[in-house]
Design brief:
Elements: H1 2-18, E1 26-34, E2 43-45, E3 53-54, E4 60-65, E5 70-74, E6 92-95, E7 101-106, H2 120-135, E8 144-145, H3 147-162, H4 176-179, E9 188-192, H5 197-204, H6 210-218, E10 227-232, E11 237-242, E12 324-327, E13 331-332, E14 338-344, E15 349-359, E16 368-371, E17 375-379, E18 384-389, H7 393-404, E19 409-418, E20 424-433
Parallel strand pairs: 1-7, 8-10, 13-20
Antiparallel strand pairs: 1-4, 2-3, 2-5, 5-6, 9-11, 10-11, 12-14, 14-18, 15-16, 15-17, 15-19, 19-20
Helix pairs in contact: 2-5
């Protein structure tokens, strides 16, 4: 018995010298912030632990640790890919000091933004979206403007303007809202590559094409969305939807959502009227001639003189849409990105590629439509580029299941090609997906690679 107690005393002394004894531990208060000093809702893993724990909505937690311990901190633990946090899936390793309260700093995910008040065009879009929510069946309550979402939307949109190709989804998309202070995980943002507010509205409200309908169903017409932030980063728009109700954010941290009473103003902006068609023969409607002494309109001539033509050397207005060709395999495998090659033949252009796939029902699994990752690229005249649209992991599993059951699955890719003058060509390419190996050798995966933390 004495030998056992002696061995235990020796062991405790050794642990104390190494800093692991309970007596040497103390409760330390930690706060996680980004490089701007904004509190970061995060997850942390203590020394020797296998799983991450959550901070509160202000990025705070307490732990019994000693100086020299290493704590891993991440805003998106276990998430990988372009949308993952810059600190990585395993987190930033922080070495504990002897201080009673300590701050852990994570990198910013976007450029700066001081944009918390909507411009007239941004307010007009929010107001119009809320008009459509009110007219929806069933009617939906108005979205309220969040300064946090607005600030994040501008930072993301402006970064996309500065970045070559306007990549979408934006980098670090899982944690961009947290980076700007949103106190919970989860995000839903939609982009618009159009500069004109009226085109952007049509892109988001379901009134232009099948993709617009999908964006509206998941965005403006989703009753779970109660907060909104919209920003024009300089010809490229982002809308952020979220929810700051008690079901999503603990009331103690709701103030960090930046919720306002503003619901947008549908009269704050008037879209320009389309140009009037020229009158026959180039004369003013009705053939009126300016009265004596009156000043002739610009471009007209006094009575008895021929109208002046275009100024010598004035460039003709470009009204021709860009000419493009599409190529690539018409049958592809479901495991990797779906590829389509685009060549801008007549002039430099920008290409916006969006895809969807309808996976048919298999046994008890219902049919479902999935959206592919959006790709935006700028091409020089005569340049050929291969655009690769990534399938979500859940879509790949559903496609494998359907193909193994003998169903046909095809991806529809819609490409919107625009030139510098704003002329647009729209092309659609349908690609059939096929298994590249025997069905007997396929093993269906059931793991989840969800980006929800």
């Amino acid at each position: 018995m004495r030998r056992t107690q002696g061995l235990a005393a020796v062991a405790l002394t050794a642990l104390a010298m190494l800093g692991f004894a309970d007596a040497a531990m103390a409760a330390v208060a930690f706060t996680v912030v980004d490089d701007r000093g904004i509190d970061q809702f995060s997850a942390y893993r203590l020394p020797g632990a296998f799983s991450f724990l959550r901070t509160d909505g202000d990025g705070r937690f307490s732990a019994n640790v000693v100086a020299g311990d290493v704590i891993s901190v991440s805003r998106a633990p276990s998430s990988t890919g372009a949308c993952a946090a810059p600190e990585g899936s395993s987190g930033l390793d922080y070495t504990v000091t002897a201080a009673a309260s300590q701050t852990i700093t994570l990198p910013n995910t976007t450029g700066d933004s001081t944009h918390t008040t909507l411009t007239d065009t941004e307010s007009w879009i929010v107001g119009r979206l809320n008009e459509e929510r009110a007219a929806h069946s069933p009617s939906l309550p108005a979205l309220h403007v969040s300064t946090t979402l607005t600030q994040a939307a501008y930072a993301i949109a402006h970064d996309r303007v500065l970045a070559a190709g306007h990549a979408y989804p934006p980098p670090y998309c899982l944690v961009n809202l947290i980076d700007w202070g949103w106190p919970s995980a989860g995000f839903l943002n939609e982009d618009s590559p159009f500069a004109a507010p009226e085109q952007t509205l049509g892109h988001w409200d379901g009134t232009t094409d099948a993709e617009s309908v999908n964006l509206a169903q998941n965005g403006v017409f989703d009753p779970a969305n109660t907060a909104i932030g919209v920003a024009d980063g300089g010809g490229y728009w982002i809308v952020e939807y979220n929810d700051c109700s008690a079901s999503s954010v603990a009331p103690a941290f709701a103030g960090r959502c930046g919720m306002t009473t503003a619901t947008g103003d549908p009269t704050a902006y008037t879209p320009p009227a389309p140009p009037a068609p020229p009158a026959p023969g180039g004369a003013a409607a009705g053939g009126d001639v300016p009265a004596a002494g009156a000043t002739a309109p610009v471009g007209s001539a006094p009575a008895g003189q021929a109208p002046a033509g275009p100024s010598p050397g004035a460039p003709a207005r470009d009204v021709a849409p860009p000419t493009v060709t599409l190529s690539g395999a018409a049958r592809q495998g479901p495991a990797g990105p779906v590829a389509v090659a685009v060549t801008c033949l007549s002039e430099a252009c920008t290409v916006d590629a969006r895809g969807s796939v309808r996976v048919p029902a298999v046994r008890t699994v219902r049919a479902k439509t999935y959206s592919l990752a959006h790709v935006h690229r700028s091409l020089a005249k005569g340049t050929r580029a291969t655009l690769r649209l990534t399938l979500p992991a859940s879509a790949r599993r559903a496609i494998h299941r359907a193909l193994a059951a003998g169903r046909h699955v095809a991806v529809s890719i819609r490409l919107t090609v625009a030139d510098a003058a704003g002329n647009v060509t729209t092309r659609t390419r349908r690609i059939r997906l096929e298994l590249r190996h025997p069905v007997s050798a396929m093993v269906e995966r059931t793991d989840c690679t969800c980006h929800v933390i």
